[in-house]
Amino acid sequence: MAALTPEVTWAQRSSETDETRNYLYVFINVPDVPPKSADLKLTENNVSFTGTNLKGAKYSVSLDLYAEIDTENSKVHHSPRGVEMVLRKKKLGLEYWPRLLKEAKRVHFVKTDFDKWVDEDEQDEAQEDDYAANFGGFGEDGGLGGIDFSKLGGGAGLDMAGGEAAGEEEEDDEDLPELEGEEKGDKKIQEVS
């Protein structure tokens, strides 16, 4: 069986003065490929991956990069979902790379990671998640990076003990006006002809 080409997503940041803010986020989507059956190679101009998942499917991809990366200061994390990388760009500069790959032709398996992408002119204003240290927002302790779930939708304003929104009283149906053609206690509704 021929090797499958995995989906690769990417985003980037640039800086002409701070090398720690001059990097690429690259994710190779290879679910259920254990680290022991995977081979990842980083060079200044290339990222290559081969591996076999638990069901026996083989994956292989080689990415000739647009420009050079600093392999010494790049980070790799192999998770059950795939391989996450923060690749440090070798050359400092404000301009983004125009594409991930050296060759200008479009390839179907490389996609922009819009969850991490920030436009070039907005990168200084954007709140930075420390993906370089926490790989996707998970804290070093394996937690969810200090997310306060009580502030997320769905439960906003709920008093968990009483189940009602703070400051609201239970409505009484007796205070509601009657519908046209309906008498109190009568469930018949007048038909409109």
Automatic annotation (TrEMBL):
Residues 166-181 have a biased composition (Acidic residues). InterPro entries: CS_dom, HSP20-like_chaperone, p23-like. It comes from the Eukaryota. GO terms for biological process: chaperone-mediated protein complex assembly; protein folding. One of its GO terms (cellular component) is cytosol. CDD domains: p23_hB-ind1_like. PROSITE patterns: CS. Residues 3-101 form the CS domain. Residues 182-193 have a biased composition (Basic and acidic residues). One of its GO terms (molecular function) is protein-folding chaperone binding. Gene3D superfamilies: 2.60.40.790. Pfam families: CS. Residues 158-193 are annotated as: Disordered. Belongs to the p23/wos2 family. PANTHER family: CO-CHAPERONE PROTEIN DAF-41 (PTHR22932:SF1), TELOMERASE-BINDING PROTEIN P23 HSP90 CO-CHAPERONE (PTHR22932). This is Hsp90 binding co-chaperone (Sba1), putative. It comes from Talaromyces stipitatus (strain ATCC 10500 / CBS 375.48 / QM 6759 / NRRL 1006) (Penicillium stipitatum).
